[in-house]
């Protein structure tokens, strides 16, 4: 039988990404995203409900998220669910479900998520400098 483990969420970051590195040097970022849901209750009043999701990003995606995302910024996260369970030293069983990001899409305009001292022009200049002599390789 086929199986599918795919999730899409759109929400806002509840904190700045937390970037760390594994002992072998791989970047990993922990991101927390709030997703709002609005529905009409039995009494006819509108109810706002928030759900909070832990997201884990790896590699260059983790570094980019850490560089450009900040608390409050809107994102789309596409990934898969991963569950884990463990026992604490005092014998209590714990478990968690998190989203392992396969794609993180920034939803504000380009450069808006950058550090406050960066301007859109500086971000664009940095991208052009990164291309260096390979500017003729740009496909447009």
UniProtKB/TrEMBL annotation:
SUPFAM superfamilies assigned: Nucleic acid-binding proteins
Gene Ontology molecular functions: single-stranded DNA binding
Pfam families attached to this UniProt entry: SSB (PF00436)
Domain of life according to the entry: Bacteria
GO biological process, alphabetically ordered: DNA replication
InterPro entries for this protein: NA-bd_OB-fold (IPR012340), Primosome_PriB/ssb (IPR000424), ssDNA-bd (IPR011344)
Keyword set, alphabetical order: DNA-binding
NCBIfam families: ssb (TIGR00621)
Official protein name in the record: Single-stranded DNA-binding protein
């Amino acid at each position: 039988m086929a199986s599918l483990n795919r999730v899409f969420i759109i929400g806002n970051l509840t904190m700045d990404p937390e970037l760390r590195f594994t002992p072998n040097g791989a970047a990993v970022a922990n991101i927390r995203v709030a997703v709002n849901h609005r529905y009409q209750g039995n009494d006819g009043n509108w109810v706002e409900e928030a759900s909070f999701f832990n997201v884990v990003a790896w590699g260059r995606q983790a570094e980019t998220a850490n560089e450009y995302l900040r608390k409050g910024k809107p994102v789309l996260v596409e990934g898969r669910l991963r569950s884990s369970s463990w026992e604490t030293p005092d014998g209590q069983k714990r478990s968690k479900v998190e989203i392992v990001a396969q794609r993180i899409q920034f939803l504000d305009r380009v450069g808006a998520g950058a550090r406050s001292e960066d301007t859109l022009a500086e971000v664009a200049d940095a991208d052009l400098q990164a291309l260096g002599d390979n500017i003729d390789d740009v496909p447009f």
